[in-house]
Structures are given as C-alpha cells and as structure tokens.
Amino acid sequence: MVQDKPQDGIAELVARYHRELFAYAYRLTGRAADAEDLTQQTFLAACAAYHSLRDARCARGWLYAILRSQYLKQFSRARRLVINEDPTELEQIPEELPYEPDFDQELLQQALDRLPAEFKVVVLMFYFEGCSYKEIAEQLKLPPGTVMSRLARAKQRLRDALLHTGQPAFNGSMEAGVPQVVREGTPHVGG
Amino acid sequence: MDDPRPTSGPVPPRRPSGRLEESKGPLVEPSAGASASGPHEQPGLGHLLANCEGQELQPGLHAALEVCRPNTADLDDPALAEVQAALAADAGLRRRLASLQQFDQALVAALRDVRAPAGLEDRLLKAVSALAHSEGVEPLVEVEAALLAPSSDAASASCVPPASAEADHAACRDEAGYTSVRSGCLAPDTVLPSKRRAMRLSSRPMVLAASLVLVVGAGLVIWQYRRPASLPTPQQLANEATGQFQQDLSEGDGMPASKKWPAQVPASFPQLRLPQGTKWRTCRLVNVSAVMFDVTQAGVKGALYVVRAREVARGAQVPNTPSRVVFTQGVSRTMWRQGDYLCVLIVEGDEQALRRLLRPVPPVT
Questions:
Q1: Are both A59 and A110 inside the same structural domain?
Q2: Fewer CB in 10 Å around end: N or C, chain B?
Q3: Which residue, A74, A101, A116, sits at the end of a domain?
Q4: CA dist., res. A112 & res. A97, Å (int)
C-alpha cells in the first residue's frame, strides 16, 4: 500500500532501499560522493513525484528508474568514451573462466568506469537489477538488438579488463594452470 | 542502520565471499566432470569450455548467449529459438554458456558488494524531511523529476510505473537477493555530499529569487537607459516638423481639416493667438504621435506641432516660453514646453512673422 504522505512513504523506501541504491549509484558513478549525491537526488525526486507511484510493489523498479535517469542526465556527459564497435565473436568468450573468482573491486570499478554511460547502464541493469535484455530494451526504449549488442560488448569488456589486463585481476583461487595471484600491498578484509 | 564501519580512507577489496553454485539453467548442462564430482572437485571451467573452437555459429549467437541469465527462462524466449536449438545440439556450447553464467553470477555478487557509508540513511531522511518542510524546494525537485531522462530513459524516468506487463514484472521483481548488501567494498572517497546537497537545495530558492531580482533590476535599468535613446530629441522633432511644414507648403495640401478641438492636446495655448475654428490633424514626427494645428493668419502660413513631452527624450533643455526663434530655409520656428506637452511653432517667413502669432510676454514685476 502506498502511503498517503510522501514523506512517510519515502522514509519507508529510504530505510528499505538506500543501501542497494547507493551500491548501484556507486557502480554507476565510481565515486562515493557522487553516489551519495545521486542516491539523495533519487529519493528527493521520488518524494516530489511520489503521487505517481501507485503500487508500492513497484517502488524498487521505480527508484532504480529514477536513479538511472538522474545518472544519465548528470553524469553521462562527463565521460564519453567510444567502445569498440567490432562485432563480438564467440571465440572472445574466454575458454577458461575462473570457477571461483574473487574480483578485485578496484579493477572491477575501473573496468566499469571505462565503459560509456550507455553501456554501463545496460550492463548494470542486467547484473544489478537482474533485468532481461527485453526488459532493458523496453525501459530504455531501445531496440532489443541494440541492447543485446551493447550488453555483449560491455560484458566482453568487463571480462577483458578483469581477466586479461596484465594486472592481477583476482585475489582468490584460480583454475588449474593459471597462477594464483594476490595483489601485493592490497589489504584484505575478511568476508 | 548503516554499518558502523569507518567510512573514510581507501577501500580494501574483499576476499572471496563464497563458492558459486552450479548453474541451474534449463538448457545448461554441467560438464561431465562437474556432474561427476561436484563443483568443489571439478578441475575448472576451462574444461567446460573445451572443444568449442572452430564451430560455425549463426551471427549473433554470441550476443544471445551473453544475454541469457542464469536460473531464468530466458531461453524460452521465441526470439532465442535458434540459440536454444544450437544449445540442444551442441554440448560444448552448453558448457560455454554454463561457464558464462557462473562467471556472471560471481560478477553480480561482486557488483553488489558495496557498503553504504555510515549515516547515509539519516542524511537521506533529513534531506527528505527538509524537502517536505520546504515549500520552495519541492517544485524544483518536481522539475528535476520531470526532467529525469534526457532521451531514451524518458519513459522510465517519468516516475510512472511501467505500462507493459513485462516491464511491470521487471519493476515488481522479487527482491530476494537484492535487499541484503553484504559488507565489503566500501566506497573510497566518502564525504558528506548529502549535507552539501541539502544546502544546495535549501539555498536554491534564495539563489533563484536573487537571480530574479537581478534580472528584473537589470531589465529596468536597461529599459530606462534604452528608452531615452529610442525616443526622439526635441531637436529631431523640430527638424522633422520643419520638413513636413515645408513639404505641405510646396504641395499645397496636407492642411488640417478638423475643427473640433482635439482631446489629446491642451485645451488652449496661452502663448499663441489662435483664431476660432482652428483646424488640426494628427501626424507623426519621428514615429511620435503629434497634432498639427493650422495657425495660418493674415496670409502668413504657419503650423503648430504638439507632442507629449513623455514621448520625447529627456535631457535636452526646452524653455517654457517661445523665447528662442530659429530661422532656417525660409521658415522660422520656435519651441517651448507647456506642461506635459512640447510645442513647435513654425511660420513661413522671418522671426517677425512668427512673433506676430505669439502673445506678448507680460513684463516681470
């Protein structure tokens, strides 16, 4: 049930979703300060437009949509990198992927930051929101083929960055035949 | 509440948080090794992807493989029927897909492994509360909300729940797996952006109001300075009146036809000797509306032009009496101000002819 008072309703949404929205914002922006700004803008915009939320069950997707749009509006102009337009090939999928990867968060974020905003949004909708490519296409008003292509290329880029950077990409165990690498000087936190 | 872990300083990456489970996708079959010994004992995904090289695939198959999420019915999509057929016929492809999906699952966990800074919830609530209690801020945020999406994201940004069933499904997705954000990657450069933002928001109406005042003030100043510049000077009016008068003389027409006293001028001109039934007509002098009286008397042609003083540029000193007479091009003219009006008297002939139309100025006592 949607609260009558926007403030009450948004307070409930803040309590429930602020962590994951912040994480999403952080993955999009790459900076905690920007992520917090973006999260706050999202909730403020949601508060102002709260009357348009008719079904509380849709609040999560609604908030994500607001956040995405805020991001595209504010941050997408900051970095405009051209991603490789070459078609991806099946052979580009690594033959051996680590079974138990432990991604270096720094490398992961760097890889995300290198993606153009349009690609980053698509790949995060897929990974973070769990959207299908059709849902992404519908929400972003893009042709499904475009989303499929962007998604494949962005995922390929992420994998390349994480697996073939020449820098240690993993902290955990690797496959047989692949040396186990631990980043020197990088403290670990028990999980 | 937020995790009390310190929020400043660099963020250490995390160690592995757990072993991945086998993909359970409907068309994804684990490798022989995996199914025989289980995930903990299998030699690795490299074996899963063996024997896939060299096979010829339909264009776009790779992209289709990439968009198949684990543990979903994505492959049931009719648009991916070719992929489904290819997977059914090729065990190597199935292993490759399984490898991709396992990798994706690990990546999902890593991507969500971001911890919110301490106090974020409180700051957000304060910002929302400030917004709710600030009438001046809300419309601005509404505008922001309305302008959320620059282009393709417009529909989703309109804050209206998605219209289609599929989009509804996406928006109302089960939250399992999303709500718990494990402690882990702490965003590195945590500052207090929310306070910053709150200050920006609260000061925005003030800034807008100040900007509005500045704009209005600047507009007034510009208007004040531009207005005189766009208005004719008394000298310009007099010259224009002289030109018109001479033209009327040469053409012999254009003289006034109306006898009824015009309402837009003074009821009388004490400085002039105007006969009864003086005719007049309206005219324009340098784009200023004027009234011209035919003051022809005793065979001496003359005209009086009257304009509103407010339509004349300020600055030039105009006497209150017709004291100064200018003779030029065979006509004499004099100019004076009477209340809110500017009068220009032009007479054919010299100053003496003009003086005959003027009432004598009473001596100063």
A1: no
A2: C
A3: A74
A4: 19
Count of domains observed in chain A: 2
Tell me whether residue A37 is in a domain: yes
Q: Where in chain B are the domains?
A: 32-112, 129-180+187-224, 234-355
Determine, yes or no, domain membership for A191.
no
Q: Is residue A29 part of a domain?
A: yes
Kindly report the nearest CA distance between residue B44 and chain A, in angstroms: 6
Does B82 lie at the interface with A, CB-CB under 8 angstroms? Answer: no
- Please give the average per-residue pLDDT across B239-262, as a whole number: 72
- Please tell me whether residues A24 and A67 are part of one structural domain: yes
pLDDT beyond 70 at B185: no
- Chain B, 7 to 36: residues with Cβ < 8 Å from chain A are 7, 11-20
- Quick one: pLDDT band at residue A25, thresholds 50, 70, 90? very high
Question: Which residues are paired to B285 by β-bridges?
Answer: B288
The answer to whether A63 touches B166, Cβ cutoff 8 Å, is no
CATH number of the domain residue A70 falls in = 1.10.1740.10
What homologous superfamily does CATH list for B234-355? Answer: MucB/RseB, C-terminal domain (3.30.200.100)
Residue A115 lies in a domain: yes
| pLDDT range class, residue A122, cuts 50, 70, 90 | very high
Largest CA distance in chain A: 60
Average pLDDT of A36-53? 87
Please check whether residues A59 and A12 belong to one and the same domain.
Answer: yes
Interface check for A113 against chain B (CB to CB < 8 A): the answer is no
Flag if B62 and A100 touch (Cβ within 8 Å). no
Contact flag B100-A108 (C-beta cutoff 8 Å): no
CATH number, domain of A128, equals 1.10.10.10
The pLDDT tens digits for A93-117 are 555 555 556 678 888 898 898 888 8
Among residues 127-166 of chain B, which lie with CB inside 8 Å of chain A? 127-129, 131-132, 138, 141-142, 144-162, 164, 166
The range of the structural domain enclosing residue A46 comes to: 6-74
Which residue in A48, A156, A186 is closest to B141 by CB distance?
Answer: A48
CA–CA min distance A19, chain B (Å)? 6
Task: Retrieve residue B235's tokens.
Answer: 């000298």
Q: Determine whether the interchain pair B62/A95 forms a contact, defined as Cβ–Cβ distance below 8 Å.
A: no
Q: Reduced to 3 DSSP states, what percent helix, strand and coil does chain B have, rounded to the nearest 5?
A: 40, 15, 45
CA distances from B233 to B228, B239, B266, B312, B364 (A): 9, 10, 21, 6, 31
What are the angstrom distances between the C-alpha of B284 and each of B137, B227, B238, B243, B341?
52, 18, 12, 12, 15
In chain B, which residue ranges form alpha helices assigned H by DSSP? 32-37, 45-48, 61-66, 81-89, 91-111, 120-133, 138-146, 154-157, 165-171, 193-230, 234-251, 351-355
